[in-house]
Structure to design on (413 residues):
């Protein structure tokens, strides 16, 4: 499997001087080892002293790995803690972190009063209080999240909102000295805590990144594949805007070989979905993928208020004897670029989008249902609508793995 990172490429990122800072991590049994160790390593690499306080002198954490079959969390790792939770003097530290896993639950069960007192005390003394993933459960138990904006694992969203917090599903949220984040965006967590300590008024290097400050780059980075949409119409002006964004795509000889059909009609979308599901049952079964959940997965997508079917008009393409596919390739490439423009324009207008690549399996049915003439090739279907939930970023291959300088195999340091 190719190496992937969660869009935070540490090889090209930040450097901080935390040598004057003592930071604390608080854990109990079955902590998320990967979260804990990654954040700790980042802080230590920037010179910080990091103490781990635990409910026991030795505690195990679980590891998880992204495998071909999904997440595997069977491996355990035991570590020695630096001091008991009961002995923590919070004034010795500048920040405190609660990692996730089952640790937060166990922490509250075995040392609840000490821990909630510690969190309140930390905030009063001006420490940065950070929690990642399930770690937010410790914060909701303290009563300090009321009126605060926070994130964390979806499992604890209810605890947080019941405690009066505004819950959002994001990589990392900063509200005053409270920093909450999600797994596996460890580097962001480590960076945001470091910057809160070094640049308390804001303006740290991560805020100056072109992907944070330039609206085009921010849109490119923040676009996600959205698969659940609100039942809210995309109005016709907005649809026109999306199609105009498509029209600004480049194309060979400015041919503009794209044709689009926008479909909002629920019955029509439903009919297409039924044909698609029939075909997909065959596809998923032949790939050994269990069918349960597949239907609800796809109905969420087909429920998008707007589907855009993107076709490539092949009727004017002259096929040459030599390099006969080039004209076809160029035409399809142009339609692909137009679709990317639609997805980016959608993001810029607070809409979500999805490239429904698998719909080409029922190209003939779609063409027949929509009355499309011969000579048109379905390039893709885009699902568009206002997102119910935008997924968090998926991992990207590091830049150093996908690029060379000047010639193949060469890398400038
Ligand atoms: C050519 C292509 C085909 C795709 N087909 C599907 C699809 O049939 N169903 C789906 O859910 N996502 C599909 N996707 C979306 C990818 O899964 C998604 O882009 C990728 O996982 C990265 O996630 P992101 O777009 O949120 O960054 C497709 C994307 C591309 C470019």
């Amino acid at each position: 499997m190719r190496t992937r990172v969660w869009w935070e490429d540490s090889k090209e990122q930040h450097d901080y001087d935390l040598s004057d800072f003592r930071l604390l991590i608080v854990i109990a049994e079955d902590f998320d080892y990967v979260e804990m160790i990654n954040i700790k390593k980042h802080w230590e690499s920037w010179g910080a002293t990091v103490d781990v306080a635990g409910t026991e002198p030795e505690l195990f954490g679980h590891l998880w790995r992204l495998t071909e079959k999904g997440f595997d969390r069977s491996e355990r790792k035991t570590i020695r803690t630096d001091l008991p939770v009961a002995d923590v003097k919070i004034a010795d530290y500048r920040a405190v972190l609660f990692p996730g896993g089952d640790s937060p639950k166990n922490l509250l069960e075995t040392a609840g009063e000490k821990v909630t007192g510690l969190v309140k005390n930390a905030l009063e003394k001006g420490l940065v209080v950070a929690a990642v993933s399930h770690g937010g459960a410790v914060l909701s138990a303290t009563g300090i999240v009321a009126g605060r904006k926070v994130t964390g694992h979806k499992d604890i969203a209810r605890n947080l909102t019941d405690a009066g917090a505004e819950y959002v599903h994001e990589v990392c949220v900063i509200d005053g000295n409270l920093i909450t984040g999600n797994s596996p965006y460890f580097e962001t967590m480590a960076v945001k805590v470091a910057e809160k300590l070094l640049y308390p008024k804001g303006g740290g290097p991560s805020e100056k990144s072109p992907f944070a400050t330039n609206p085009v780059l921010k849109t490119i980075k923040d676009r996600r594949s959205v698969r659940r949409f609100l039942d809210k119409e995309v109005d016709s002006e907005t649809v026109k805007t999306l199609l105009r964004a498509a029209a600004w795509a480049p194309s060979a000889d400015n041919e503009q070989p794209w044709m689009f059909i926008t479909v909002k009609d629920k019955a029509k979308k439903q009919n297409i979905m039924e044909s698609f599901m029939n075909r997909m049952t065959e596809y998923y079964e032949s790939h050994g993928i269990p069918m349960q959940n597949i239907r609800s997965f796809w109905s969420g997508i087909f429920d998008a208020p707007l589907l855009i079917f993107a076709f490539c008009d092949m009727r004017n393409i002259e096929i040459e004897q030599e390099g006969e596919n080039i004209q076809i390739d160029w035409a399809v490439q142009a339609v692909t670029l137009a679709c990317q423009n639609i997805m980016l324009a959608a993001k810029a207008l607070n809409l979500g989008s999805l490239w429904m690549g698998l719909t080409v399996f029922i190209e003939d049915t779609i063409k027949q249902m929509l009355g499309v003439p011969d000579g048109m090739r379905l390039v893709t279907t885009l699902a568009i609508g206002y997102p119910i939930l935008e997924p968090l970023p998926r991992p990207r291959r590091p830049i150093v793995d996908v690029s060379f300088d000047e010639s193949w195999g060469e890398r400038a340091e």
